[in-house]
């Protein structure tokens, strides 16, 4: 994992400590926290004395003003620390920080974590933000934290819904802050510096012997948002410290020696020649010319590529290529950004829908489009998002498919393919202990790989991202259908229907497809330590050992990230690479095209600044491909570089993760360019559709009033709507809700809103619209009883391609539940035919409960925790319900 080093930049640390309360218990130990932590932060090269601001607020506005000032001044690292009382509502939501004059249950006397603190930090100009909360219920801060866009790292003193013993300790600060200070001051053996992740791990070790007032182990928690790197918080080390960089030494020398002398000289000159000195000072202190607003470019890409392209866009914004004045641009001050780039992502089918409805896309952006979605439910401005200026899909196949779906004439969007910006070959991940005998790692035909992994040999399940949602899945399908014998794929030809159906039969189903490579691999990560257990149990109900029975069809970059323990999908980064037996070995099917990530310039008819936007896109495209520009940024993320002028592929840079022996990649594997034609892509997708079997989907949705709390209902409705988009031409569905308003005393009652067997998605969308307008039920939702009714109904059919999608808040049926309901449900799930239950959980506990893990295991289903990626992750699982493959073994 890369580390962010803020030395030499304009950093700020706001240290908030409240020990004296008017109506709450005083916390005398907190009084020592600020000076102790300030001393630790200034002990190394990261912060200087004038960059640290202590704050002991008695009123909410004092804290807000200090926070705003720090957010405005910081350009490098912004560290915000709070120590004091914390308070939440009865439902565990709405964390509030208590200042000196705060009164419980009088919210105007407190500071809202979400509305005041996070909103202010989300507009900060700092490159990285680190927040440390030491208060009761600090762990509840994680829920609202993930709704923001700035690169933030959050350290919470304890797990959710826990109070802590803090404030009555002897002199020297609280237990938590004393441990934090010691880590920052003394460093960690074997480490040259201390990062945010180091602090989290060390605090967990040092507080392992402490208990919360509720008798639980005191376990600090952490969360990260919009960043995959780590942040250095101290350069202390028990070993011989490394010398400071010259820029850091120069900055410190200036602050310690030159600046005081300049102040004295200025005072003398002012005393001697007051008027002249005033004029000089006015001239010296006159601010630099304000930078004009930068031109915003919107970059649309796939979720799998978003983290790397976000880093590349940020590097470009700060680069000389984007900040040096250009002839003809007027008086743009040196150092001002000409362009800023907003990076966002969406699934492949949503992007295709957006370009197909480009008239509506542009109309909504201008405010002249229709106010409601069209008859297909397409709402491009909501999903995939704002109309893009450039689009970097995963492969040229995605571009060809989007073009095919656009109208022949009249579209306001014009797509210009400027060519690839980077490559990643497609691979099959084979467990390290199950490598097929006689099959070469590089250039083995697909038919050899299929034979070497079938039930007569290594008996591996082939898992693929959905071709409907993922460019990686689509390109793998093209390879399976058109390069089965290893032959070169030309620009003409059709897939053999029998070959396509045979290939699909080898893929495992149902519930085996995912929205992209990263989420597929995230579901396979072994639950072997504290960093992985939450994610693995949530998304891989089979638990440890699931990976050694699977062979994922993914990209080389994502497989390398997986093996090296890097952040992947919704799985956070690990402390190091996976164990050798848990890694996959990359196999490269012969003549399967690589992901080529073409840069597509999107011109919009009628745009008044079209020329400026085209020029800005061109500069960014040139920089992305330049050896001294974006190429090293992308190759450092694990991508292959573009071929040189002679057509030869340059070797990856020395810092490329592909060079790690633990990555299990093969740099001798060739990069095969995409050569298929538009008609071939269409025929492959048609062959995929014809290989599917009819399926049934039952949406079972919790519509109790608690779903309206904390923003859960929009996520639930979005996920249900996304599920309806996956209902194909030969697939049917039903929509049931629980509890039933007509039978408030019957926990088994469900409301059959849309009849099971319906093919028209419009009826389901209309029902969801009614729920969105407040059609909720004001009594507890008994999940197990409602699910039992749904499973019993689905078991009446002998078909194997069917599933239940359960969208719930939390199970409220426990207090009045009849004995044996859980046992009957488990037994029913295990009866034939199989009915997988795909569960989306929006409650505070997420998927990390015994009941939900047992439900996923008994039904061979999956559990998806709530979050921004939940609708697409759920859609990927639903996309495989009608696939022709085998059930999970």
UniProtKB/TrEMBL annotation:
<dbReference type="InterPro" id="IPR011600">
    <property type="entry name" value="Pept_C14_caspase"/>
</dbReference>
<keyword id="KW-0812">Transmembrane</keyword>
<feature type="transmembrane region" description="Helical">
    <location>
        <begin position="262"/>
        <end position="281"/>
    </location>
</feature>
<protein>
    <submittedName>
        <fullName>Caspase family protein</fullName>
    </submittedName>
</protein>
<dbReference type="InterPro" id="IPR002035">
    <property type="entry name" value="VWF_A"/>
</dbReference>
<dbReference type="InterPro" id="IPR029030">
    <property type="entry name" value="Caspase-like_dom_sf"/>
</dbReference>
<feature type="region of interest" description="Disordered">
    <location>
        <begin position="639"/>
        <end position="663"/>
    </location>
</feature>
<dbReference type="InterPro" id="IPR036465">
    <property type="entry name" value="vWFA_dom_sf"/>
</dbReference>
<keyword id="KW-1133">Transmembrane helix</keyword>
<dbReference type="Pfam" id="PF00656">
    <property type="entry name" value="Peptidase_C14"/>
</dbReference>
<feature type="region of interest" description="Disordered">
    <location>
        <begin position="364"/>
        <end position="392"/>
    </location>
</feature>
<feature type="domain" description="VWFA">
    <location>
        <begin position="694"/>
        <end position="882"/>
    </location>
</feature>
<keyword id="KW-0472">Membrane</keyword>
């Amino acid at each position: 994992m890369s580390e962010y080093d803020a030395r030499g930049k304009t950093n700020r640390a706001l240290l908030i400590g409240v020990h004296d309360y008017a109506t709450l218990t005083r916390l005398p130990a907190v009084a020592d926290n600020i000076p102790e932590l300030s001393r630790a932060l200034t002990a190394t090269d990261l912060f200087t004395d004038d960059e640290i601001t202590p704050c002991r607020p008695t009123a909410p506005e004092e804290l807000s003003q200090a926070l705003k000032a720090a957010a405005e001044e910081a350009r490098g690292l912004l560290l915000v620390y709070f120590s004091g009382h914390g308070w939440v509502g009865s439902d565990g939501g709405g964390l509030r920080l208590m200042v000196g004059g705060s009164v419980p249950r009088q919210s105007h006397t407190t500071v809202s974590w979400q509305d005041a603190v996070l909103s202010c930090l989300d507009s900060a100009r700092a490159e990285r933000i680190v927040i440390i909360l030491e208060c009761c219920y600090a762990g509840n801060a994680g829920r609202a934290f993930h709704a923001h866009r700035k690169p933030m790292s959050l350290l919470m003193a304890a797990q959710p819904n826990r109070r802590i013993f803090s404030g009555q300790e002897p002199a020297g600060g609280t237990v938590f802050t004393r441990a934090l200070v010691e880590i920052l001051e003394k460093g960690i053996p074997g480490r040259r510096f201390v990062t945010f992740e180091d602090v989290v791990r060390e605090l967990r070790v040092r507080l392992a012997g402490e208990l919360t007032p509720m008798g639980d182990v005191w376990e600090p928690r952490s969360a990260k948002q919009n960043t995959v790197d780590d942040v250095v918080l101290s350069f202390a080390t028990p070993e011989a410290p490394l010398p400071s960089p010259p820029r850091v030494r120069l900055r410190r020398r200036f602050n310690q020696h030159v600046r005081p002398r300049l102040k004295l000289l200025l005072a003398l000159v002012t005393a001697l020649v007051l008027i002249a000195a005033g004029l000089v000072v006015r001239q010296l202190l006159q601010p630099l010319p304000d930078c004009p607003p930068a031109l915003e470019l919107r970059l649309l890409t796939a979720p799998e590529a978003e983290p790397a392209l976000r880093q590349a866009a940020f590097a470009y914004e700060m680069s000389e290529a984007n900040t040096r004045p250009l002839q003809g641009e007027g008086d743009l001050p040196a150092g001002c950004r000409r362009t800023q780039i907003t990076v966002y992502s969406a699934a492949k089918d949503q992007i295709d829908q957006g370009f197909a409805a480009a008239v509506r896309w542009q109309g909504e952006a201008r405010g002249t489009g229709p106010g409601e979605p069209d008859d297909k439910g397409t709402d491009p401005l909501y999903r995939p998002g704002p109309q893009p200026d450039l689009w970097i899909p995963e492969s040229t196949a995605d571009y060809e498919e989007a073009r095919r779906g656009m109208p022949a004439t009249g579209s306001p969007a014009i797509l210009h393919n400027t060519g690839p910006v980077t490559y990643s070959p497609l691979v099959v991940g084979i467990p390290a202990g199950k490598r097929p005998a006689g099959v070469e790692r590089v250039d083995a035909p697909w038919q050899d790989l299929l034979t070497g992994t079938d039930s007569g040999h290594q008996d591996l399940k082939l898992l693929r991202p959905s071709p409907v949602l993922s460019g990686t899945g689509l390109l793998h399908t093209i390879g399976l259908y058109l390069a089965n014998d290893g032959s070169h794929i030309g620009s003409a030809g059709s897939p053999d229907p029998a070959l396509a159906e045979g290939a699909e039969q080898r893929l495992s189903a149902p519930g085996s497809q995912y929205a992209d490579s990263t989420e597929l691999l995230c579901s396979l990560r072994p639950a072997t330590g504290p960093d992985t257990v939450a994610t693995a149990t949530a998304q891989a109900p089979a638990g440890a050992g699931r990976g050694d029975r699977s062979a994922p069809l993914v990209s080389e970059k994502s497989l390398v990230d997986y093996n090296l323990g890097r952040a992947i999908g919704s799985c956070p980064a690990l402390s190091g690479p996976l164990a050798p037996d848990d890694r996959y070995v990359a196999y490269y099917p012969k003549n399967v095209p690589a992901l080529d990530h073409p840069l597509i310039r999107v011109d919009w008819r009628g745009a008044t600044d079209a020329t400026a936007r085209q020029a800005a896109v061109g500069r960014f495209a040139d920089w992305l491909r330049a050896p001294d520009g974006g190429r090293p940024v992308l190759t450092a993320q694990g991508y292959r570089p573009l071929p040189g002028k002679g057509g030869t592929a340059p070797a990856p840079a020395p810092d490329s993760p592909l060079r790690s022996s633990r990555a299990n990649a093969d740099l001798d594997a060739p990069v095969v360019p995409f050569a298929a034609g538009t008609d071939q892509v269409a025929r492959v997708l048609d062959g995929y559709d014809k290989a599917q079997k009819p399926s049934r989907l039952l949406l079972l949705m919790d519509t109790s009033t608690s779903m309206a709390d904390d923003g859960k209902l929009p996520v639930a409705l979005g996920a249900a709507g996304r599920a309806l988009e996956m209902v194909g031409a030969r697939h049917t569905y039903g929509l049931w809700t629980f509890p039933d308003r007509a039978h408030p005393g019957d926990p088994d009652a469900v409301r059959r809103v849309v009849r099971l067997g319906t093919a028209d998605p419009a009826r389901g969308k209309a029902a969801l619209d009614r729920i969105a307008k407040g059609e909720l039920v004001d009594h507890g939702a008994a999940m197990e009883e409602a699910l039992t009714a749904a499973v019993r109904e689905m078991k009446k059919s002998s078909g194997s391609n069917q599933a239940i999608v359960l969208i719930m808040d939390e199970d409220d049926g426990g207090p009045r539940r009849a004995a044996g309901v859980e046992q009957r449900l488990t037994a029913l799930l295990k009866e034939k035919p199989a009915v997988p239950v795909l569960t989306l959980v929006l409650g505070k506990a997420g998927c990390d409960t015994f009941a939900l893990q047992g439900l996923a295991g008994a039904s061979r289903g999956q559990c998806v925790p709530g979050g921004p990626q939940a609708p697409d992750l759920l859609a990927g699982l639903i996309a495989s319900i009608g696939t022709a493959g085998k059930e999970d073994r």
